[in-house]
Amino acid sequence: MRTRTKLSAAAVGLAATGALVLSSGGASGHGYTDLPISRQKLCQNGTVSNCGDIQWEPQSVEGPKGFPASGPADGQLCSGGNSRFAQLSSPRTPSGGAWPTTRVTGGQSYTFRWQFTAMHATTDFKYYVTRQGWNQDHNLSRSDLNLTPFLTVPYGGRRPPSTLSHSGTLPSGLSGHHVILAVWTVADTGNAFYACSDVTF
């Protein structure tokens, strides 16, 4: 019931700030990943505290589509270029600790899951991962990532259900802490949704 109340509050907040969302070409659909758990979901469920607005609207990390050729600027990838959610792009949590990680195994199948609070016509879902030896001490940049997605799920303009899972093989040859950047590209607006998940291979 508490979660439902929070979502209702988020919906009211979004309605109040509709002009801001529309000014950036906002889509009517919103969503985030919870497998592996994303930074915005860790804030929403209270695992990470002092996150600011994102704790009420983990589904709203929306930015320009076209990644990696365009899209959010380097250093703002995990927040989708949204200054309101800048803490998601920091290499440390708002309290200064490390982002909690999900343990995964390279070369094995993994089921990724998205949760949608509203659905939108979808081009595809793409998943990128950091390179071995990436710089963990600064905000995530394109130079930290393998810019060829290790998984692409075409969606042909269809609208996803409220929960969507799909499986893919995780890259081999990685060890230690990495970040998976998931990108949900909307078909009929100029935007996409971004989610960063911290994992340990």
- The overall number of domains is 1
- The 3D shape can be described as globular
Q: Which bin fits the share of residues in helices?
A: 10-25%
The helix/strand series, from N terminus to C terminus, equals HHEHEEEEEEEE
- How many strands, which pairing sense, and closed or not: the largest β-sheet? 6 strands, mixed
- Sequence stretches where pLDDT stays below 50 over 5 or more residues: 1-28
Structural class: alpha+beta
Domain Chitin-binding type-4: 30-199
Biased composition (Polar residues): 79-93
Region (Disordered): 62-102
Keywords: Monooxygenase, Oxidoreductase, Secreted, Signal
Q: What does the model show?
A:
This is Lytic polysaccharide monooxygenase. GO terms for molecular function: monooxygenase activity. With 201 residues, this protein is α+β, with helices and mostly antiparallel strands. The protein has a single domain (2-200), classed as chitin-binding protein cbp21 (Coagulation Factor XIII, Chain A, domain 1, Distorted Sandwich), CATH 2.70.50. 13% of the residues lie in helices and 33% in strands. The protein has three helices and nine strands, in the order H-H-E-H-E-E-E-E-E-E-E-E. It has helices spanning 2-16, 18-23, 39-44; strands spanning 30-35, 62-64, 102-103, 109-118, 122-130, 145-154, 163-169, 177-186, 191-200. The longest helix has 15 residues, at 2-16. It starts with a helix and ends with a strand.
